[in-house]
Amino acid sequence: MSGELSVDYLGLELSTPVVVGACPLTKEPETVRQLIQAGAGAIVLPSILQEQIVHRCMKTDDPLRALSHSGYQPQQNHYNGGADGYLQTIEELRSLFDVPVIASLNGSSGGAWLGFAKEIESAGAHAIEFNLQQVVYDELETSNDAEARMCNMVRQVRDEVQIPLAAKISQRYTNLASMARQLTLDDGDGAVCDGLVLFTHTPHWDVSVDRMHWTIHWELSPLHSLGAILEGVVRSRSTTPDASIAASGGVATGEDAIKAMIAGADVVMVTSVVYRHGPDAIREIVDGIRRHVEWSHHQTLREFLAARPVEPVNEERFMRMEYIDPLTRSETYFDPTPEVSPQSGDAYGHQT
């Protein structure tokens, strides 16, 4: 059935609700072709970084200071193609493919660098995803100050462009629903942005015992990590009924995607599962969504989404029972750690 899985996201029509999240895979035309052929409804380019754009703005007048003060490092260009290459990538992908091409900005402070959003729009991007890095380094900055600063950053981008804008935020808010509301509800001057991507990928912190120094590693999303994403989607949807929401993180199967959409997401973003299994992972997720829609006796995914229930999350007693009931109803608890096969080795990796 033509259009049976089409959805709206940020005012754009997608042929399926599966979006390839921001990663280097999406800047290569041949890879993008395979992802779209497998069923991707849109792609998000790897983020262009604040440091790259600041360096680009400074290097003409003072190259040495630009390198020392911007935070730019050459390997960043290998990640996303560099500022000028980024614009060329947008133009090329727009000319080759019909699915929406969404650009990604990544930064933690405001400034003139955000004007690059206008160049992204001119290059042909269908929308912009602003990955807000919640860097709070001043012990005197309150949570209200930090939230206001990030909303102002998004509004700076909003003032630069006419294309749809989504904010990609972290889970680290005392009141996530409040932050979602600040970003998406019309305050008289229009909404700060058109939608939310929940959530930014959280790196893994560790400590090197040899160097006696903390370190940060980037890892794929762990298996069975969808639960925290679902909680955030439910909480955000409760206060932003009309905003677009993308669930990002932990979606690996068609069932995961359906769960995320029942929770309140309009689309799901996948990255780690594509790195693990290639474009076929998208095909399996899309097929799983299609089977569930057929099983639920809806003609289209839009009908299915319109029928999803709205769960209350703003009553203390309800929220307490959701926590207390599963805690106290049983003496046994699910253990997500897989058992080690005696044929492969013990828990310490010793072969048997």
TrEMBL record:
InterPro entries recorded: Aldolase_TIM (IPR013785), DHO_dehydrogenase (IPR050074), Dihydroorotate_DH_1_2 (IPR012135), Dihydroorotate_DH_cat (IPR005720)
Cofactor: FMN
Annotated Gene Ontology cellular component terms: cytoplasm
Disordered: annotated segments: 331-352
Single GO MF descriptor: dihydroorotate dehydrogenase activity
Keywords: Flavoprotein, FMN, Oxidoreductase, Pyrimidine biosynthesis
Pathway: Pyrimidine metabolism; UMP biosynthesis via de novo pathway
Ranges annotated as biased composition (Polar residues): 340-352
Sequence ranges assigned to domain Dihydroorotate dehydrogenase catalytic in this UniProt record: 239-291
UniProt xrefs under SUPFAM superfamilies: FMN-linked oxidoreductases
Pfam families, alphabetized: DHO_dh (PF01180)
Top-level taxon of the source organism: Bacteria
GO BP: any one term: 'de novo' UMP biosynthetic process
Coiled-coil ranges (or none): none
Keyword Transcription assigned: no
NCBIfam families named among the record's database cross-references: PRK07565.1 (NF005741)
Protein name, per record: Dihydroorotate dehydrogenase 2
